[in-house]
Amino acid sequence: MTQIDFSRYSRRVGNLPRIIDSWLESTLHLRDYGDSFSEFYGLWSAFNSWGLLVTLEKHDSGIVKAIGKSKLCQNLYKEKLDQDKEKLIVGSLESVSTNFPLYSFADLVRYDCEFDWISNQDNSLFQSKVNNTTVKLKHSASLDPYDFESVTNCLYAVRCNLLHGSKAANTQEKNFVSSFLPVLRFITDKENGLFSLGNQRQEELPQAHS
Q1: pLDDT band at residue 190, thresholds of 50, 70 and 90?
Q2: What's the pTM value of the predicted model, to 2 decimals?
Q3: DSSP class of residue 161?
C-alpha cells in the first residue's frame, strides 16, 4: 500500500525540497519567452522530484500512478476546473484529446524501425500497422480532461515520448507540450496547486487489484 505524505515538502525533509525549488526557479522566465519545451522539462522535473518525496515510489510510473489515484489530488484538480471559468486547462487538453491513447514511440521504433511513425501517425496506415501486430505496444489511457487520473496518465505518456522516444522539437510535439503545460503549472503551484498540499500529512491509497 502506498502511503503519501504531502508534508515532507512543506517540512523541508532532506535534499529534495531544495532541488524542487531550483527546478521551479529555473522556469520562472521561460513562459515569457514562449519556451514551452524548456518549461515543460523544468516543471516535469520539479513534479517528478516532488512526487518521489511524497510517495517514495521506486519508479516514475509508480509516482504518477500514486498521484493520479490520490483523492486529495483529484479533489483539488476538480476544484481548479470549477474555478477555471475560461476553461484554460480543459480547452488545452481537448485540443489534443483525439491523439490518445498515445503509443510509446520507443515501442513503435522497436516494432518497425524503418516505418515513418511521425509522418503517418494521423492516417489509416498507422492504425493498420498497430492493429495487425502481435507485439504488445505500450500506450496511454484515453484522455478525459475532467479525470485527473486520466490526465496524469496521458501527461506521463507525453513525457516518456519526449524523453525516451521521438525527442522531436516539431509542431506536433510542441502541441502536446503546450497542451499539458497548464496541467503542470497547476500541479507545481505552491499556492493553489498540488504543491500546496503540505498541510495534509498522509493519505493511504487502497491496494491495487490485479
Answers
A1: very high
A2: 0.86
A3: I
